[in-house]
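Might I ask for a little of your time on a matter of protein folding? What I wish to show you is a protein chain and, alongside it, a tokenised description of its three-dimensional fold. I should value your view on which stretches of the chain appear to form regular backbone elements. You will find the record immediately after this paragraph:
***
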Amino acid sequence: MNIHNSLQMILGGIAGLALATFVSADTSKNNQTVADSVMLFDFEGEITSNTLETNDAKVNLIDHNGSKVLQLKTGIQAGAPGVTIKKTSGSWDLNPYYHVKMDITNAGEDPARIIFKVGDPEDGMQAWQMEIRFDLAPGETKTVSDDIVTTPWRFTEALDLLAMRAAPGEAKSDLSAIDQVKVTINYPANEHTLLIDNIRATNPVRWVTPEGFLPFIDRFGQYKHAHWPGKTLSVDDLRQQAQDEQRELSAHPGPKYFNKYGGWETGPQLEASGYFRVQKYKGAWWFVDPSGKLFWSHGVGVVNAGTAITGITDRESYFEWLPEKDSPYGAFYGTAGRASHGYYSTIAERETYNFTASNLYQKYGDNWRDEFDRVTHARLRSWGMNTLGVASDKQLTTDGVTPYTETVWVTGTKKIEASKGYWGKFHDVFDPSFKKQLKLALSNREHTVDDPWLLGFFIENELSWGAEGSLAVATLESPADQPAKIEFVKDLKNKYSSIDKLNKAWGTQHASWDELLESKKSPNQTKAWNDLSAFYSKIVDTYFSTVRDELKAVAPNALYLGCRLAWANSDTVIRTAAKYSDVISMNKYQYDVSNVGLPEGVDKPILIGEFHFGALDRGALHLGVVEAQSQSHRAELYTHYLDSALLNPFIVGTHWFQYAEQPPTGRGDGENYNVGIVDLADKPFPELVNSIQEVGYRFYTFRDKAAEAGKLVQPKKSNTIQHIQIDEDAHTRSN
């Protein structure tokens, strides 16, 4: 066996990224011998007070199965209660290692969603990359593994690959001075008890030279230096797949009990309104389609022919094939503005290439656009799906073939200057620009007003509401001319009448109302809590009421599907969303949604706007938000997630994010996740499709029989955040 084949077997099987012919490799760097593992914390010695830093938690060393372990008991007051475990002195250089592992047991009575983070990077994206999130059932013990390098091999010399959330051969953060790990519970609804032991760095990386690595992307946009089942190797391969799939779609045109909308044709007949609506039936919430049939939204988002648009500016050497611009492929070049995150957020304009459309052109020829539409509708129906989710192609949504959601983005508004958020600052809803820009965003949606195929409107996405009171604090920390701040001070004047009375209540020393306006300091949050909470509620109410009024003025028969809540949200946000929305949309990146519920007394349908699972065994460089071990595991997780949603009486649908794979070189903000149902070359992932299809052909009868048998699972408690003082580390892309 030659060295090339040996390396592929050793390294390629670990993470789906073979090293191919461009490398030579060794287990050491600079001839240094590396131990197989190094223990970071085993808890057998004494633990000093400066070693353990708790947040809404208590820790003890206890005897367990003949050894000492760290017992962690967490509360429910903080956003991320847990413990930071610090090295007594100095730090570790973990550059030689691929994993940090931990043994952990759930010794409590409830399932726990746990975050394990290595190190403490200042960069928010690096901080997220250095953590894993996992579920642990009561009584369950796991050895969890946090990858601290993107691949099981590293370059001996950095290539500084740009604009990717995960780039091959690179550490996810600076590993030269790691001095802590962190274990937290993600927005708990219950108290938890965990047992932690044997935190260690393991699996020495292999060091490879970067010579010959570039270019690393082939003509189809795929990672070049790996092979996997189903990889597209030629244009003939693409065309043959199209023929094979057409036979499959003809043989399986879709569930027989679907009506034209994908509603339950053989189910009960309810009132037909001519539009989609919602109704509770047998104790569970449902959509009702225009013909009066029960409808559960089994959908997928971002269904369009541009999911693999990737930047080529400053990265031309990454691609083995970029066609001439005066060739037929020149149509797939484009430009894009500043990205929200990552390298391209620093550049005003970048050139791009659309590998999705390029591959479809090579697959179908000049008629590729019409074929994409036809095949996509046929696929969704064949798979037992019935909804085009967020940010899907306008031509697809107006075909009158598959029900769809309309997505409205409100841009160009004045923001609360001191507010923060993953996708940007929060709107100043008291500034006239908010209503003006909302009206403008809705003004080009006339085609949806009387469309029976419209499931409803998403207005915006993953807004950063923060904890209860947080937007009010940000308002006070903003400049004097902030309209929200002027409104807040007006409310305070009406309540207190004099600045002296406010000072007495807040413990402040403002000389006048004007001085309060000019100040950018936040007050003592405990003393000012009632006022902070009241103005926070006013912001939230003004946002949702304004959106509902303007939407219903344009499309009175359409459902308002909310703003796609992400992360954890305050009780105020959820209650107000329920007051004004017809359906509450939530993006829930987790393994199970059986316990997704609403605050006490709130009864509204919930639509899961996003979820996914990703793995690294088919050429992907980043697995996405929620980890799977393989494509088969992705499929298993899909079935479990859907079943948990179908058994939850609040949930009226789930939308996978997203239809097609993100490019390994990343979209504008660097996301390069294994999240597609179809890959970069428009080939479905067969394992995942099989699970989607299996669920899709039974979900109506499954949910109905569960309701008949009284087996719907009532969520215990909503997952909300109640306080300002929360761990902001928990506010990442994940929920």
Q: What stands out?
A: Confidence is low (pLDDT under 50) at residues 1-16, 722-735. The two ends are 46 Å apart (CA to CA). Residues 193 and 580 are 38 Å apart (CA to CA).
